[in-house]
Amino acid sequence: MWELIQANKRKSIILIISMGILLVLLGYVIGSAYSPDGGGVAGVFIALMLWGILYIISYTSGSKILLAVSGAKEVTKDIHPQLYNIVEEMKIASGHPFMPKIYIIDSAAPNAFATGIKPNNTAIAVTAGLLGRLNRDELQGVIAHEMSHIVNRDVLFMTVSGIMLGAIVLISEVFIYSLWFGGGGRYSKSSKDSGQGQIIFIVIAIAFAILAPIAARLLYFAISRKREYLADASAVRFTRYPEGLASALEKISRSTEELKKANKVTAPMYIANPLKKKGRKLNDLTSTHPPISERIRILRGIAKSADFNAYQTAFNKVTGKETDIIPPAELKDSTPINIRGAMGIPAVGLTQKQTQRNVGDLIMKLNDYSFINCNCGVKIKIPPDYKKKIVFCPRCGREHKL
Predict the structure, then answer these.
(1) Which of 96, 157, 294, 370 could form a disulfide with 382 if both were Cys (CB 3.0 to 4.6 A apart)?
(2) Does residue 381 sit in the same domain as residue 317?
(3) 53-107, pLDDT tens digit by residue?
(4) Is 146 a residue of the active site?
(5) Which of 3, 89, 138, 146 is catalytic?
């Protein structure tokens, strides 16, 4: 895994430098548009200062902000022992020295993501809908994928590059809005020559303000998609059961529920693109993820072994490309890993109504509700602010002491 992590770091540095150049150029041309005489230097300074502020905020509180925006709540082993055990299994299988914190998102849409700047302070968040739909093998596949992002340091890359992308987009939008609402009245018009020069800079700045965010997004998304393949390949090694992740992705892709708390900033963090819109294909150049159908075919194309060579072979066969998803040194050192059989735990097979009920119960448990199973078959749900010592079953009237 060392070579894979090093390759990820090198690509991250190249991407961050490329986006940094875009950020500096954007600051320069916009600054020059405001003031041709020395404005470019001031624009570069402001752009870098903005990026620095965003980076400090994200480095110190980025994960907390991301989890809060997503509506995630931390869970313990007592609340969901199976989830805790699976995360612990994948932590051991991956060789990661630290146990990630575990969060659940109040949403019926099945999805998951990982976050964390430092290896000793990471987190894996899954939606309640994911827990309600997947069997143990499938859930293990998803957790292994997210653990791969942590081990490969993808979460650090996504945070830093996401901040830089956000700075580029913010500067571009502020400039465009200032032109639209300001009408150009605040720009320098001290002489005819300087005025003509400024007009040229304004035209260049407008073009750059439109193109720079697009270029940064394409670069960001292209690398993000490749990292999804890498995480799938690593997940197969951790679980030794590619069908688990393939089946989980299949169920996730069939979901029609909307993950309302996801947005363009958080979307690349999820295992599958959460921004589903009717009549629109998201698996194109502007997508944060490769096509799920392709990922599933690759996983199901893996034969006999769960090592990196097997995944690379399946990738080349399915995509028809000779692209190296795995670094050559890692492929050279890769040894065959026997694929295990299914655990024999049947799929949940719940109806949509049952899934929604289970999701609701889980969220209530996270919010400190208590439950009483009456002999008549009714599950009584007690809110945390209920003050009485007894409660009566709404069906049979049986008295229950709290």
Answers:
(1) 370
(2) no
(3) 877 877 787 788 888 888 888 988 888 888 999 999 999 999 999 999 999 998 8
(4) yes
(5) 146
